[in-house]
UniProtKB/TrEMBL annotation:
Basic and acidic residues: compositionally biased ranges: 420-436
Source organism: Oryctolagus cuniculus (Rabbit)
Region: Disordered, residue numbers: 417-468
The protein's name in its UniProt record: Regulator of G protein signaling 6
Domain DEP: from-to ranges: 5-80
Membrane topology of the entry: Peripheral membrane protein
Localization per record: Cell membrane; Cytoplasm, Cytosol; Membrane
Length: 509
């Protein structure tokens, strides 16, 4: 970006009335370079990206303490690699005091302190009152070194140093991009870590910083230190920390367990009737018996039983056989309470209390004394979460006791081991009825009309009619059987037989 020979941002020296501004570029040039080399079409996006780069201190305006990018003729300068934030600077307040004190010693209009910098200098002077003479001597030494440099070089270095402190001690109201996370600051710091100093000031002179925590002098380890370390390590051992290998193993086991129920991994059985022509799923849902795959999922966890309506019904039947169904009914009542309108909450709370917890309740539940006291206190000011502690206690009780016995019960094992029933006559009749639904309306009536026109029987004698009336009560099919209509539909769909006679499938049963 700074290499002008390979298409970088043009850097030039701008002449003014009585002076020169060396090594600068304009905000417009930077924005145009970003749009051209990063394929950015929106100028606003390029300005935003440039502002992010400037906020980190890699590019800075030469006449403003606020590090931002403007798409105009404002002059910008690139920061020296020595001051880049990537060097992980952690400058102390002592270094900042030396920098501000050094600027007050130079009678330059461009080096005058801003209002907030003057306030910072006064505050640091009060904080470092005992060592201010040392800070002043350090500033004088830095000024003497700067005076030996070339005028142009000194002007560029002053602006780069000012931009460095604008990043690490920003203007009030601006975002501090180098601010440490408070959670990281509270961690145990390494006492042997030495922070880098901007001006080479020793750690001894920085020990009285009013902001940063001073590093403790190195001393010999005592028995008390070793005991504290042992206590700390024992506390770390007792902490519940999972290794990444254990977490990955748990995730893999969970994925393998539920892969059978994920339609993206395993094709659904039966198929979704909304995307296929198979309506078996609807037939299964209409039946009272749950599928074997559904029952198997109840054994994964207690929550799977509670999420499934059929699973709750089966679990409730099991609890009724053990005379403990009030636990599940209480849990379901509390869940329903959380969904009630606010105007009905107080009434519902009283109903639940009278049914399950009040003295002499018809369906009293077994609560420990602590949960009962908390619930009794909460009932006085009823809300949606009045029975939260009692519900949690009942949930743990059912999960640890009733759920385990439910999985071992004969009712659950029978559902789990149930095989798919063979196709019966009812199943065949259902298949034929499915075929009749695909036949267009009116085809049965047309088939019967064609049959009557093709096969007109001769008139029956009176004696034969009398005999038929006598045998009619003994007929197996006193009413037309549904398969008679189906056979007529088949005859209409297949058409007449090659011999011109009615098809064998036509007729009345």
């Amino acid at each position: 970006m700074q290499d002008d020979k390979t298409g970088g941002v043009p850097i030039r020296t701008v002449k003014s009335f009585l002076s020169k501004v060396p090594s600068v570029t304009t905000g417009t040039d930077i924005v145009q370079w970003l749009m051209k080399n990063l394929s950015i079409e929106d100028p606003g996006e390029a300005i935003h990206l440039g502002s992010l780069i400037a906020a980190q201190g890699y590019i800075f305006p030469i006449s403003d303490h606020v590090l931002t990018m403007k798409d105009d003729g404002t002059f910008y300068r690139f920061q020296a690699p020595y001051f880049w934030p990537s060097n992980c600077w952690e400058p102390e307040n002592t270094d900042y005091a030396i920098y501000l004190c050094k600027r007050t010693m130079q009678n330059k209009a461009r080096l005058e302190l801003a209002d907030y910098e003057a306030e910072n200098l006064a505050r640091l002077q009060r904080a470092f009152a005992r060592k201010w003479e040392f800070i002043f001597m350090q500033a004088e030494a830095q000024v003497k070194i700067d005076r030996k440099k070339d005028k142009t070089e000194r002007k560029i270095l002053d602006s780069q140093e000012r931009a460095f402190w604008d990043v690490h001690r920003p203007v009030p109201g601006c975002v501090n991009t180098t601010e440490m996370d408070i959670r990281k600051c509270r961690r145990l710091k390494n006492p042997q870590k030495v922070k880098k100093s901007v001006y080479g000031v020793t750690e001894e002179s920085q020990s009285q910083s009013p902001v940063h925590i001073p590093s403790q002098p190195i001393r010999k380890t005592t028995k008390d230190d070793i005991r504290k370390q042992i206590t700390f390590l024992n506390a770390q051992i007792d902490r519940h920390c999972l290794k990444m290998s254990k977490v990955a193993e748990s995730l893999i086991a969970y994925t393998e367990q539920y892969a059978e129920y994920d339609p993206f991994v395993t094709p659904a059985e039966p198929a979704n009737p909304w995307v296929s022509d198979d309506i078996t799923l609807w037939d299964v849902e209409m039946s009272k018996e749950p599928s074997q795959q559904r029952v198997k999922r109840w054994g994964f966890s207690f929550d799977e039983v509670l999420k499934d309506q059929v699973g709750r019904d089966q679990f409730l039947r099991f609890l009724e056989s053990e005379f403990s169904s009030e636990n599940l009914r209480f849990w379901l009542a509390v869940q329903d309470l959380k969904k009630q309108p606010l105007q009905d909450v107080a009434k519902r709370v009283e109903e639940i209390w009278q049914e399950f917890l009040a003295p002499g309740a018809p369906s009293a539940i077994n609560l420990d004394s602590h949960s009962y006291e908390i619930t009794s206190h909460n009932v006085k000011d009823g809300g949606r979460y009045t029975f939260e502690d009692a519900q949690e206690h009942i949930y743990k009780l059912m999960k640890s006791d009733s759920y385990a016995r439910f999985l071992r019960s004969n009712a659950y094992q029978d559902l789990l081991q149930a095989k798919k029933k063979p196709e019966s006559e009812q199943g065949r009749r259902t298949s034929l009825e499915k075929f009749t639904r695909s036949v267009p309306p009116g085809s049965n009536r047309a088939a019967r009309a064609r049959h009557r026109s093709r096969s007109k029987r001769p008139p029956t004698s009176p004696a034969l009619k009398k005999r038929q009336r006598r045998l009619q009560p003994m007929c197996l099919f006193a009413r037309p059987h549904p398969l008679g209509v189906v056979s007529a539909s088949l005859g209409a769909a297949l058409g007449p037989s090659p011999g011109g006679s009615p098809s064998a499938n036509e007729g009345t049963w």
